[in-house]
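Researcher: Structure prediction, please.
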Amino acid sequence: MAKIAVVYYSTYGHVQTLAEAVKKGVEEAGHQADIFQVPETLPTDILEKIHAPAKADYPIATAATLPEYDGIAFGFPTRFGTAAAQMKAFWDSLGQLWQNGSLVGKAVTVFTSTATQVGGQETTILTSIPVFAHHGLVFVPVGYSYGSSLFDVSTVRGGGPFGAGTIAGSDGSRQPSEVEIGAAVHQGSHFAKIAAKLAA
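Model: Predicted structure follows.
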């Protein structure tokens, strides 16, 4: 049985919803998943001004968390086509793991959220790959393994071959759709199976 850490940052809850779906997919595939969030870097007064909801009651990930797992599923919203600063700050704290090669050979995958359909979901994931390369992590995309829904252009839909995603809307009012949640569940299942093979 593979152990998967689902490590996310979410301002308004969209990525949290996807993280919970990824966890469901991991478990449906017969593997173990634990959800963690990364530390918030924005001060409380700023979070109040942008009307960010209270954080969920998931434990905070630290560098010591990751080596215990066979695979890591990172989730974070975009900030101008790259990862949110909170996730970057977390990655910056992993220097000791990089120096010791603690994550070499482990599987990694990414899911994300943007405000618009052209808001950078692919670039957000692509620009995270150099971080994974430096750690020797093995990036696992989903490709088009989720099937026909990825070819449907009749409705607003996030995600793609690089990983699951959702469209939040410019004001954050749009919530992940059933199709987007389904893609995240599939990603969790798909990823866990590959992580288990790498860990065998």
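Model: The CA atoms of residues 13 and 53 lie 8 Å apart.
Researcher: Thanks, that helps.
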